[in-house]
Amino acid sequence: MGFIFFIHGNKSLFRPYDGSPVLTTNWVGKQRLHYLQDSHLEIFPLFKTFDKEYFYQRHLPQTPIPFRYHPDQSIDPHILNEAIENFFYEVRCQKKQYSDFVILKKETFNLKKQAGLLVVRGKTFPLNQFVVKLFMETPRSFIRAYNKGFVAVCHFITGHGATRYMLGFTRLKNLDVIEEMIQDSPEWSKIVDLPRKWFWLPKNYPWIHLAGYHIGSEDQVFLDFPGAYAIIADAIDIERDFSLKNPIDCKMGIDLFNYLQSLIDPHSNNFVIEKETGKIIIIDTEHLPTMVSLKEPIKVDSYRSWYSYLVKKGFQEYFLRTVEERKKLQAHPVEPYKGPEKYVEKARKKIEKLEKNYNKHLKEEEKKTKQKLRKSRHLN
Predict the structure, then answer these.
(1) Nearest CA-CA partner of 227 in 151, 114, 148
(2) What does pTM read for this prediction?
(3) Total number of domains in the chain
């Protein structure tokens, strides 16, 4: 069984076990375990966010990638992949500056512990056309949800186990649904856009094994997921950020939040105005219902009412929910709201089509390579 390191959740280690959910983590293939017991955990934000098949479907493509602002030009994905691999190697060496990338955000990243979120952008063309969001965790850091700062603790409480790391896996699937909803709106399709995004996985980096006990309707549940991954996105040329001091920005942010049926975080930092087009760009597409455990969409009329709702919801569910209510949720878990079924299904079919086209392209390239090889042998 190995060594177990007890990490304090909301239960004393000296109180008798009361049937609350228990999590353990370890590197895949290793025995050293880390432990967390917390009565508020739910199965979906922890065990249902990482979809392995979808992750690989939305992996960085092997075909040339056109630039957002120079669609007549493209980058060889192998060049981009090599640059990110080198960046990841520098991070692993605990370097604070990087050869090909400049840091945009690092306040949640612990270089020494190799955990957190690190956001960078390429220094020069063509790498500067992309932003890389690197997510890293260790079995120990993953389980220490109450040691990651105020924002992370709020996510963990309101999302019943939601972490920034696992929420990262929801960004692309949620983006697919949002794109369908935006494109279907005569109004929003003219003024709102989103950057393209892909997943990236480093070579030869260990995965984490997560085990859950007495969580959801099952006695045991398990998941293996990457110990590090990245999201690559189009870099946006920003005219200005959204501001809560701007009444028009506030109205647009809340109206968009309501139209998208609570699928995105309406925080002003999540929106920017793009140069040239003047469009509203949605930067982060984390699945908000998973982040704050929304079982159905809500509507708000202002940022004040939205933040009031979150505070009230978090306090109610963490401090005032009875033991009976918690046990009922464990026995009969309710999945976070995915979005309108019509758009969820359209997004799913779109990805399936892209996957088929990509596989067809690979077969054609393989055929061409074999033909060239035969021709070369014939000439020799």
Answers:
(1) 114
(2) 0.89
(3) 1
